[in-house]
Automatic annotation (TrEMBL):
Pfam families: GHL6. InterPro entries: Class_I_gatase-like (IPR029062), Divisome_Glycosyl_Hydrolase (IPR052177), GH (IPR017853), GHL6 (IPR028212). This is Family 10 glycosylhydrolase.
């Protein structure tokens, strides 16, 4: 008998997303072999919704015109079950064919004039509205038919929210008006429109109700089965936390690869972001075997194998179980297969140790999550956090993400330092939790407009954390400014290591603040001077306004009154990265529990239990680390791993899990030291405590 805890053992996923013509030439044997060779223990297979790949009996459930009397979905389910795998059926309800649109116009998403919205990519099909009977009733019946007829453990819904913008269907208009008293907002993310925050809450509530309906329908037929919606790149942001706690056995996050200016560590951030919301839930990262280029959409193509391998590996190094997806069952380019097999095999080898040890860190970076959606244009862009994330990776400081809506004294307790890259929206309760955290000895590093707005986006006259920062706001944001610099003033660990420089690059958006009497100011802004003509390029006045403020009481605090994270992410100037690293190390007040020293760019994860500690090192040292696809893995130069031994422990043994070799351990000053050489993409140094 199958049990409801199956998600804990579904840790390597093969997803096959079928094209309409696949039933005519589906090679079930090939896909069975891929699942076997990759050691996949779970499969997600296209079943229905926009197109049915099984002999559905539901009117207007369009079935593939290439299917004939075959059952491709059933054949793939049988093959996966033959390998002892868990099986998930994929449905996609975001669009319908013309016959359904003609028969049920009430199902369709509409523009502000009430006109149905045609699909942006494929003419002749129509986008659906999630707040209509199509989702509530029709897709519920599709889900029930699949679960009733096939041996599946779950239903996975892609693009389950229907149309991504505001749908002005009659049913959506009526529901929103009845429940809130407002008309639907005229445009998205307009903080001046009182209907917008009401819409954000209403949409979250309605989508949560929808997931609950689908989950109940699945469980009604198979009590162990679950309904799993695709969560996009931001885990659970569109759902009520109580619903997630009640019905979500795992998160599946659809961040299939990187595009534009993105670092490979974005894969690992998926795991951290999900853990920052609900640390007890398994997290899956969907990785595509093709490139992610949103403008040109080469979905039926193959990315360089090393790019695919690196993306999967960095994801599982930080705790996200691997899940690959292939669009179109026809394999015109098989170069992705060895990359997936190798990455999945690595996961299978490391899983016994990594899955048994929880990820730990002394530093937490606050994740802005949902709050940024109240700011125009800020739904998916957080350059301040990107910059701080990059700086912490470069500095080899292990850290976790903490969701802003989970900012409580209890969630802060495990960390020694909290970082606010630009946490603009903080409510009184959140500010009080931070205030008490610092009073009890916690470190705080904060930048730019942190706490200048409440949780609803209303501006404050002064920082909500002014007493903690040791800074009072004198003038609001000024900028963007050019040619700004900050001067080193006095000796302090935060301005150490700049090689005798008297000043470094400053910010592009500045706040004028006054520093408190119990603070120190290791950097001050150089007053503006021209950047052209070149003959005018010199400072006229001495440094004046505080650019970095530090306080040391029960806890150590650093505040930067400018856009440090965003400007580092944009320009990647080394001094900004050093400034962030210096601040976090000083706020920590001691050497980190685990360090990895040596040249190169590496993403670290630390796991710990009562018997020992594991340091995972992912080698991101590559000319394509920030843009383009990785073509080859360049071996990491020798590294030194050191770990603080627990009180009373004087000895440890160490094993390299990827190299499958024991290595010597040297104990110096209460720390175990291991030399790491000849490393490729990933290594895990597993130390087990021993006593003399």
């Amino acid at each position: 008998m199958r049990t409801s805890d199956w998600p804990r053992t579904a840790t390597r996923w093969t997803q096959l997303t079928l094209a309409e013509d696949d039933p005519a030439h589906l090679d079930v044997g090939f896909w069975t072999e891929v699942m076997r060779e990759s050691r996949s223990n779970a499969a997600c297979i296209s079943a229905g919704g926009y197109i049915a790949y099984y002999p559905t009996r539901i009117p207007f459930h369009y079935r593939s015109s290439f299917m004939g009397d075959t059952d491709p979905f059933g054949a793939l389910v049988e093959a996966a079950r033959g390998l002892g795998m868990h099986v998930m059926a994929r449905v996609d309800p975001h669009a319908v064919h013309a016959d359904a649109a003609r028969a049920h116009p009430e199902w369709l998403a509409c523009d502000p004039q009430g006109e149905p919205i045609e699909h942006w990519s494929y003419p002749g099909i129509w986008l659906t509205c999630a707040f209509t009977g199509y989702h509530r009733e029709f897709i519920t019946e599709v889900t029930r038919e699949i679960v009733r007829e096939y041996d599946v453990d779950a239903v996975f819904a892609n693009r389950w929210e229907g149309y991504g913008g505001i749908s002005y269907s009659e049913e959506a208009r009526r529901s929103f008006r009845d429940e809130t008293g407002f008309e639907l907002p005229k445009r998205e993310r307009d903080p001046s429109d009182p209907a917008w925050p009401a819409y954000v809450a209403w949409r979250r509530r309605k989508l949560s109700d929808l997931v609950a309906i689908w989950d109940a329908a699945v469980k009604d037929l198979r009590p162990h089965a679950r309904f799993i919606p695709n969560l996009g790149g931001f885990a659970a942001r569109d759902l009520e936390p109580e619903l997630v706690r009640r019905v979500y056995p795992l998160f599946v996050v659809d961040k299939q690869g990187r595009s534009g200016i993105e670092a490979p560590w974005v894969a690992g951030r998926v795991a951290k972001r999900s853990r920052g919301l609900f640390p007890d839930r398994p997290i899956g990262l969907i990785a595509s075997v093709g490139p992610e280029h949103h403008q040109h959409r080469w979905k039926d193509s193959v990315a360089p194998p090393e790019e695919v391998r690196t993306w999967i590996v960095d994801g599982f190094a930080q705790g996200a179980f691997p899940w690959f997806t292939k669009f179109n069952a026809t394999v015109s380019d098989p170069r992705w297969v060895p990359a997936v097999v190798e990455a999945f095999d690595l996961h299978a080898r490391l899983e016994p140790v990594l899955s048994a040890m929880p990820v730990t860190a002394e530093v937490a970076l606050l994740d802005p999550g949902r709050a940024g959606k109240l700011v125009p244009g800020a739904a998916h862009s957080f350059p301040d956090e990107d910059g701080f994330y990059q700086a912490l990776v470069e500095a080899r400081i292990p850290f976790e993400l903490l969701a802003d809506q989970m900012l409580t004294a209890e969630r802060l307790r495990p960390y020694k330092v909290l970082v606010l890259a630009n946490a603009e929206h903080l409510g009184q309760a959140q500010c009080q939790a931070i205030r008490e955290y610092v009073a009890q000895g916690g470190g705080l590093v904060a930048a730019y407009q942190s706490s200048l707005y409440d949780e609803h986006g209303e501006p404050r006259a002064n920082f909500g954390l002014a007493d903690v920062f040791g800074a009072d706001l004198l003038e609001p944001v000024r900028g963007p400014v050019k040619n700004n610099y900050i001067a080193l003033t006095g000796d302090h660990p935060v301005n150490a290591g700049f090689g005798g420089a008297q000043r470094i690059i400053g910010g592009t958006r500045l706040l004028r603040v006054a520093a408190g009497e119990d603070t120190r100011v290791p950097f001050r802004f150089v007053p503006d001077f021209p950047d052209l003509p070149m003959e005018e390029l010199y400072a006229r006045q001495a440094p004046d306004a505080p650019a970095v403020i530090t306080r040391q009481g029960q806890g150590r605090v650093v505040y930067f009154p400018f856009d440090l994270g965003a400007v580092f992410w944009e320009a990647l100037q080394a001094d900004h990265g050093r400034l962030i690293a210096n601040a976090v190390r000083w706020a920590l007040g001691a050497e980190p529990e685990a360090t990895v020293r040596g040249p190169g760019l590496a993403d670290l994860a630390v796991r710990k239990d009562e018997r020992g500690l594991a340091v995972t090192v992912v080698n991101l040292t590559n000319p394509m680390a920030m843009r383009g696809a990785i073509r080859e893995t360049i071996p990491l130069p020798p590294q030194t791993v050191t770990v603080a031994l627990p009180p009373g422990v004087e000895e440890a043994t160490a094993r390299l899990l990827v190299a499958d070799a024991d290595v010597p351990v040297v104990v110096r000053d209460g720390r175990a030291e291991v030399e790491l050489t000849g490393m490729g993409l990933i290594e895990v140094v597993h130390l087990i405590w021993g006593r003399r």
